[in-house]
Specification:
Layout (H helix, E strand, L loop, with lengths): L5 H4 L3 H8 L3 E6 L2 E13 L28 E6 L3 E8 L6 E12 L1 H9 L8 H5 L5 H8 L15 E4 L8 E4 L16 E4 L9
Antiparallel strand pairs: 1-2, 1-6, 2-5, 2-8, 3-4, 4-5, 7-8
The protein binds a DNA duplex (13 and 13 nucleotides) through strand 3, strand 4 and helix 5.
Amino acid sequence: MKALGREFYNRDSVIVAQELLGKILVHEINGQKISVKIVEAEAYMGTFDRAAHSFGGRRTPRVEVMYGRPGFAYVFLVYGMYHCFNIVTREEGIPQAVLIRAAEPVGGLDLIAQNRFKKSYHLLRKSQVKNLTNGPGKLCRALLIDKSLNGEDLCSNKLYVEEGDNEKLPIVASKRIGIDYAGEAKDYLWRFYIDNHEYVSVK
DNA sequence: ACCGCGATGCCCT
DNA sequence: GGGCATCGCGGTA
C-alpha cells in the first residue's frame, strides 16, 4: 500500500479527522512494521479554537510545525511523560491539526506488546490487550512515537497513513477530551470515533 | 466497577 | 512558577 498524498491533508481538520477513521497508521522501524487502524481522532481548528495550541495565532517553537505544510507530524509532550501524535492539516500559514487519540492494533502485534508491556502478545492479560492503543499516550508508546518525529513528513515511507477497508463506518461526533480550560470551545463536537469500537478511549 | 491522586518535564508567562 | 490535548495505581465496593 501507499501513503496518502499531501492533498488529503490540505483540508479543514474537522473533515480530515473524520476521514482518517478506518485508515491505517504505519511506523516502519529497522525494517519492522507496526500498523494500527485509527478509530478516534480530534480536530484542532487553529487560531479561533480556544483548545488549540495555536489559538489566537500563538506561534512558539513548540507549535511551529502547525504553521507549515499539511501532512507533517506534530508531536508534543504532556504531563511530563506522554506524547501526543497529531497530523498537520491545511496549507502553510493555517495552523490546524488532527490529534490521533486511539487505534486498533492490526500488524506487528508482538512489537506493540513489547513496547507497551515488555512481553509478547500471546502472554498479555485481557486487560492489557484492551489497553494497548486506546488513548493518545498509549498509542505513542505502542508505535514508538516521540518528539524525535516532530516535523516528520507523513508523505513518505517511514511514518505514514494508508487506505484501510473502504467500508462505510458508523461515526459518532462528541466533545473533545481533557480541554476543560478551553471556554466555549470545550463543547464543540470535534471528536470523532467509530461507534461501539472496543479501542475507543472514552465511550 | 468507579474514584482520586501522583508522576514528571517542558513550555510559556 | 503554574499548568498541561494522560495514564496507571491503590483504595473502596
